[in-house]
Amino acid sequence: MNLNIETLNKLTEQHYKLLLEADPNEKLISKYLNRSFCFEATYNNELLGVLILLPTHPETLEVVNIAVISTQRNKGIGHQLLTFAEKYARNNNYKCLEIGTGTTSFGQLYLYQKCDFRVVGVDQNFFTIHYDKEITENGLVLRDMIRLRKVLK
Fold first, then answer.
1. Span 28-83, pLDDT tens digits
2. CATH number of the 4-151 domain
3. Angle, to 10 degrees, between the axis of helix 26-33 and the axis of helix 13-22?
4. pTM for this one?
5. What Cα–Cα distance (Å) separates residue 79 from each residue in 69, 74, 132?
6. How distant, in Å, are the alpha carbons of 49, 110, 142, 152 from that of 72?
7. Mind listing the pLDDT tens digit for each residue in 38-51?
8. How far apart are CA 82 and CA 50, in angstroms?
9. Biggest alpha carbon distance in the chain?
10. Best CA proximity match to 95, nearest among 53, 52, 50, 149
11. Are 50 and 65 in contact, with CB atoms under 8 Å apart?
């Protein structure tokens, strides 16, 4: 499937619902959204995914939100979004791409490592500190965030 990935100019309710699927903390989303580069992935004018990139250091861009609609998961869309993120980072002179995910997010961890991201650290208790409600994923309570990085050569 050849996606059309473009700058997200107007955030709709559908976009926001997707953002919340990847990050259920509205306060965190509002903190990073206005400081980020936002993109949408469409196919035949249908929204399939969103990608939010936040500059965190002079040469580092972080994927702070990446989401694909549930009916289209495991079809390569997340991989295409990450490939786009890498190309965008390179074209804008970033040297590093980072991403964080939950220790219980097995599918995401697989995808990120498949895309050559390497584990660089763990933010212990990130989700218990920053999220009001307990998050359960894959039958486990989510507590820690795994940080991954891809150095762009």
1. 999 999 999 999 999 999 999 999 999 999 999 999 999 999 999 999 999 999 99
2. 3.40.630.30
3. 110
4. 0.93
5. 14, 9, 30
6. 9, 17, 24, 28
7. 999 999 999 999 99
8. 11
9. 41
10. 149
11. yes
